[in-house]
Amino acid sequence: MLDKIHTGHMGVEKCIRRARDVLFWPKMSLDISDMVLKCSVCLERRNSNAKQPSEPHKIPQYPRQVVATDLFYWNNADYIVIVNYYSLYLEVHKLHGTTSTTVINKLKGTFSRLGIPDTVVSDNGPQYSSKEFSEFANKWDFKHVTPSPHYPQSNGLAEKTVQTVKHMFNKCKKDGKDRHVALLEYRTTPLDIGYTPSQLLMCRKLRSVLPTTLEELIPKTPIYNKVENKIDYSVRIRGSNGLWKPAIISSQHPASRSYIVESQDGGIYRRNRRHRIGTREEVPLTTVENDTIVPPVRYEPQCNLTPPKLAEPTSNINNSPQITSDTETTETQQIPSDGLYITRSGRIVKPKIFESM
C-alpha cells in the first residue's frame, strides 16, 4: 500500500494528504514520511537547499592583512589577479603557465613589494590546493583559506575583481587604449569612503595621466576608523508614509547590519541598512514656523544637572529665533540627564525608542 501511495513520487505532505483521503492505520503519517525520505529516486532528483543569507567577511584592521587571488583567461592568455580586502588595490599579472610554481612566483613578487599578508583567500584550484602551495604558505608564514568546493560566492571579492578587470581589458582593446593606464586610473579613483586604493595602501595618491598638484602627491595618513566603519552618518530613513526623511546615525547596534538613528524631530529608531540610504547632506536641517532653518543641536547626557529655567514670554512675537553656536548653548543652558533633550519651545522631552515600525 505504501508503494501505491508513492506511485507518483510526490513529496511527504502530498502523499500524506492523498492517503488520508481514503486510508487510515496507526502511525500512518510516520510510515509514509519514512518511506518517502528513503526513496532513492526522489533523493537523487530532489532540489537543492534554500540559499542562506550572504554573510560578509570581516573588514581587516590594516592594509595587506587579507588578500584574495584568482586566475582568469582573457585574449588567449592566462592571468592572475591579486586584490587587497582592505584597500581594494589590485594587481594583474600575465602567466606563462597555470602550474603551482608559476602562481607562487607571481605571488612572491607581489609579496616582496607590498609585504606578506596574514591571510590569502583563493579557490580550490589545483594551483592552490597542491602540496607545493601549502609548503609556500608555511614557509612565508601566512594562512591559506579556501571556500567550499563549487561555492565561488565565498571568494566574491576575487570573482568580482576578475569581472571588473575583464570588462576593463575588453573596453581598452576595443578603443585601442593601454590597459596598464586603465589599471593605474582604477587605483587612483576614490572609493565611496573618499580615499583611493593607493591611499589606503601607500598613504599617497599616484601620479596618473590626469593633471594633479604637488599637494595631492604628498603622503597623508588616511583615517582608518572611517575606513573600518564605512558608515554614512548623514542618511535618510523611510517613514511610515514611504518618504525618505533626514536622520543621523548615532551608533551601530550590536546586531549585524543594524543602526541606531536619530530623526529630524528627535525620535530615535533602530533601522536595518536596507531601510536607510546614505546622502551627501552635511547635516539634516530643522524648519521652524517662520521658515528659518536651524541645525539640530544634539545634547550629550550629563549627571547631577538641574532642568533649565524657562525664559519669560516676550511681547514681540515678530522676532525670529536667534541661532546660537554650540559653545553658547552649553554655557547658557543646563542639559537634563538620562537622555532627555530640550525642544525649541523649552520643554524637556524623553525620546522614544522604537524597535521597529
TrEMBL record:
Segment forming the signal sequence: none
SUPFAM superfamilies: Ribonuclease H-like
Gene Ontology biological process terms from the UniProt entry: DNA integration
Sequence ranges of Polar residues compositional bias: 313-333
Domain Integrase catalytic: 59-219
Domain of life per record: Eukaryota
Molecular function GO terms recorded: nucleic acid binding
UniProt-listed Pfam families: Integrase_H2C2, rve
Protein name (database record): Integrase catalytic domain-containing protein
Chain spans, region Disordered: 306-333
Source organism: Mytilus galloprovincialis (Mediterranean mussel)
InterPro entries tied to this protein: Integrase_cat-core (IPR001584), Integrase_H2C2 (IPR041588), Retrovirus_Pol_polyprotein (IPR050951), RNaseH-like_sf (IPR012337), RNaseH_sf (IPR036397)
